[in-house]
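Subject: Interface between my chains keeps coming out wrong

I've been trying for a while to get a sensible model of this assembly. When I model each chain on its own everything looks fine, but I need the whole thing in one frame so I can look at the contacts. Pasting all components below, labels as-is. Any help appreciated, I'm running out of ideas.
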Amino acid sequence: MALLKVTSPHATGPMSTQRLMQLVLLATIPGVLALTNYFGWGTLVNIIWACLVAVAAESLALMLRKRPISFYLNDCSALVTAVLIGIALPPYSPWWLIFVGVSFAILIAKHLYGGMGYNPFNPAMVGYVVLLISFPVEMTMWAAPKGAFVGSLPSIADALGALFMGRDSIAAFSIDGITMATPLDVLKQNNSLMVSDIWAQNAQFGHWAGIGWEWVNIAFLGGGLFLLWQRVFTWHAPISMLIALSVMSALFYDGGSSASGGSPLFHLLSGATMFGAFFIVTDPVTSAVSNKGRIIYGASIGILLYLIRVWGNYPDAIAFSVLLMNFSAPLLDYYTRPRTYGHQPAKKPKGGS
Amino acid sequence: MRKVWDIHGGVHPEENKQQSNQQAISAAGIPEVLVLPLSQHIGAPAEAIVNVGDKVLKGQCIATAKGFVSVPVHASSSGEVIAIEDRVIAHPSGMSAPCIVIKTDQQDQWIEHNGIEDYSSLEKKALLNLIREAGIAGMGGAGFPAAVKLGVRDDQPIDTLIINGTECEPYITADDMLMRERAEQIIEGTKILRHLINPSEATLIGVEDNKPEGIAALQKAAEGTGIEIVSFPTKYPSGGEKQLIQILTDKEVPAGGLPAQVGIVCQNIGSVVAIYRAIKFGEPLISRITTVTGYACEQQKNLEVLLGTPVNYLLQQCGFNPKNCSRLIMGGPMMGFTLENTDVPVVKTTNCILAPTAKEIAPPTPAQACIRCGLCAEACPASLLPQQLYWFARGKEYEKLEEHNLKDCIECGACSFVCPSNIPLVQYYRASKADIRQRDLDAKNAEHAKIRFEARQARIERLEAEKIAKREARKAAAQAKAASASDDKTAKVDAVQAAIERAKAKRAGNTDDKPTRESLEQALASVEKRLASAKEKLAQAQQQNSDKVAAFETGVEKTEAKYQQAKQTLEQFIAANTTKENHQSNTETSADNSNDAAQQAIARAQQKRANKVELSPREKAEQAISSLQKRIEKTQQKLDIAKAENSDKLAIFEDSVKGLQDKLLAAEQELAKLPAAEQTPETVASENPAAKTKTAKQPVAGDDVVQDVIAQAVAKRAAFSSMSDQERLQNAVDSITKRIEKAQDRLAKAQAEGSDNTEILAESIDKLTIKLSDAKAALTEKAQH
Amino acid sequence: MFELVQQYPFITALIALTILGLPFGALLGFAAVKFKTEGDPIADQVEALLPQTQCGQCSYPGCRPYAEAIANGEAINKCPPGGEGTIQALADLLDVEALPLDAEHGEEAIKTVAYIREDECIGCTKCIQACPVDAILGAAKQMHTVIKSECTGCDLCVEPCPVDCIDMLPINTNLQTWSWNLPQPSEQIIVTDLKPRTDKDDDKSSDSDDEVAA
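Reply #2:
Try treating it as a single job with all components included. I did that and got this:
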């Protein structure tokens, strides 16, 4: 009988990296459904195509690095990156856009740095930013949400056609021209109207924020809360980010004047706020590690997000703020080490012990 | 209900305690062979006091504590010691350590033992000693000697005594069963400890709330005693001493400190029972409750096991099926270590033998990359950042590890347990801790080596400097002498002259010049110094592999002989002075005082003669001959070597061999002449120095080198005394001139060869020249008179 | 003047740069004098990292001279007793590339300690003179012995011994010095060894002596 010599502990917990990633994928479902509901099949097509590219890119990278392919593919981390990029990109994006974004994320932002766990920057966001800078036109062509324009959403065939042949070749797009500025964009460009006037003049505004956007954000919030409940991550980073964003927008709301940056609710439910808070900011690899550090990390992202949205060059800024804070994560780790047991005078026993 | 606090982190592994807590504790029985390791505790191993073949009784002390942090070992059953040797012991390394092996006789015969009826009448020290003698070490896992832990210093007031009944590790139910079945013993033991420690505030027994039966039993037994049973939510690792203290008192033991520093003493529940039995019945710690569990065994139960029982004996009783077993663990699934060998004995700290199936504990899976999810930081009871420690451990960044308080890691395994990537974090920490320990040790050793190296360097430099300084001083003195001699010819500082003067004075019966003890000691010291320097030179020569080694060696030999001589003289002088009767020896030694080398040699020769007066001259001559023969042999050997090496010293060796052979011949002749002169030595002893010198030709057959020298000196002296002063001076001048010639020859040779001796030779020529000029001056002065 | 400046705008830049340069230069010069470091702290720091075996394998007569040589630009990979660890530490300190150990000066071996086979010792004192740290005890014609705790394992005493009675014995691990190996990082798993790694594998490669076949 050959007995093993293994170090303790021998018992292992139920959580595995694969399971963590699968839970994240699962939690994106409500958001993806909401996106599909309001913007058509585009997002779903994006995601599927991105996943195919991601698996291929990951396999290629592992092969080049002489690593066991199935072992690493099983951790699902490439799929998560792909899904996140697929969600972040505008629906009905051309195939090459997604291809470039996803392969850049997997090959350059992830494997060039040493693969899973070694990347200093969130790969999905790196891919997104590369596309945003390189192809600004394609990246800002957000489809109009259902209900904001007259006509129906493109069919699944149209979506596939747009992916491989470009939008211009598909009748549904060229005829209706359903591309429309996002509410964040509108608010940003505004410098003369009161907030209430904007609301009245633009079709894409809904109850609290943009039509569709508010429900997409609420759906992602739901997914995020599910992950919190599953203890996939702690509340510190996402909640502090949302609070920081609310505080910033409340401070600069300005009563809805023409100089207003928008109400807190508008910001919370616009663009990629919830998606970013629960699916991007919580990426463990690139964020700070201690709880205190995560609060600072999240809050800083919230502040940066608002600053760039309102005064920066881009209408939405999850990617930029997250990448900026990725830089500072090691610094945060350095300054936010928790107090180790027995390392400061112990607290005074309270009451009658 | 007492307030309890929470600890940071912690995990909730599957408890699996119901497996083994369904059956009552049963006795495991007596195995055929008991293997008792000498080190079952933290601290110095015990020292065996029995021998192979000894019969031992149950409870008999077979190894005594060695040092303060140590405990004795007792035989757990009666039988015969069959071996004291290295056996595989319960250690994660699977290595061997010294054990006493007892073949049991199945009689289980107790040694006579008595308990104490009223422990409260005993002094604290006496109680502690009883606990120590009973061999009790912490039975919770670490095995720290109980008496050491309980022996708190008087200046550390203890407010709380905590009895640890937590048993937070999954699977293990040994303490649980103990509480259910022996609650009274626990309470009694706790009373003893309370008496011993005298806590000012409370005595608590902490139990996790997953043992309701145990808590109930304890509560019933503790009624009216003032001992509080505190239950708190189940969470691993609340059974860690530091964690339990935090849960029950909200105090933190300072890093690197002991619980006593915050007024707390903690003991395991098993140790408490052992202490109770030791005090009450006088039984040492020879058995313990061990849980044998895991589905690879048919039965899972708690056994009362004799210490030293091999694990396979227990496994057999429980129907162990090795095929189903994924790994064999001693201890719990969180902190236990795997066994590779089932011969390992149960020791004082063995609370569990776990034989899980692969379904219960899966074989190790390959670790994935750390995704810095932070679950480990959430789980860490010491509030460390395990993922950071992991990175630093991988990068071997030891400073960073220390900065992140790796030392405070209690290796509970909570981080590895929750790690989604299956990284063996604890192994990283253990390896790093050991590396840091080793690195610190290496640094200390390096520092130590450096100090020693520098000290050696300094010493060598100092000796070198001293040598140079001495040489300089000699040179300066010689120059000064030369200068003064040429300046003032009337100043007779020349050694030869002075010696002659003194000798004359002595002959005139000047008794003022008697030797003193101081002068003798001085002489001794100077010879000693010369000896040392000669040895040093020899060493140096050897080191430089110089061809002078042989010369230096004989030099050392000679000086050593001189040294012996001087020592002897001194001793003799002391002896003579104390008796104050032997004037003869006084006068004899008086000769020794002269600075003249010849005179000294004569004195020594006389002493030797006086000492060896009982030896017949024949014997001495024979001795001399044999010694000469020996020397010839030696020299011939050297000559051979020199020939082999084609050394340039060949001629010298040949000369010396010839010289020795001549001497031998002379000595043999002397021996032949001897019978005629049998009487002389006795007459010599009582005569004055001048007379002696004449007769002293006889003892030419000296028995060693010194004797040779003496003989030569005597001859010279004799020649001297028969000459007029002028003649003598003339003689001296001649001899010095000759020596100078010789030395110059040598110098020329040395220079031609580029030898490193040129300097020395030149110096000696200088000296000789000075001497010559002195001698000449003296001669001219004499001639004028 | 003003016109000149207007005509040749680069003069403005020239003047501005000069005005900036002067005070900063003065500041730097002042700092260089004020904060001048005494002695040669680099050599001291380097020496602190060297293992102090004084073995001379680096071709310098001791650790201090080598430390000084390193401070003056000598290669850092000439210390076999220190091995990779020392090279790494030196590379970190001096901010240079960590070179592999220079095989010309010996290879990194396990730690050893000198042991004199005492009945063969003739008492020649040669090893005593060779020992850089005075770790050998003895006198002429008397048996010598090594003080184990003082021995740095430099093996300088082995060569001078005329009867070859000095062995360099490896320091064995015992229960006190045993420790778990650092696990092989998972990311280094390559296709060929996908099977679960256990400590046993590590053991077999490094030290097979404490393996007990069960």
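Reply #3:
Confirming on my end. The interface with chain C takes residues 1-7, 66-68, 71, 114-115, 117-118 of chain A (CB under 8 Å).
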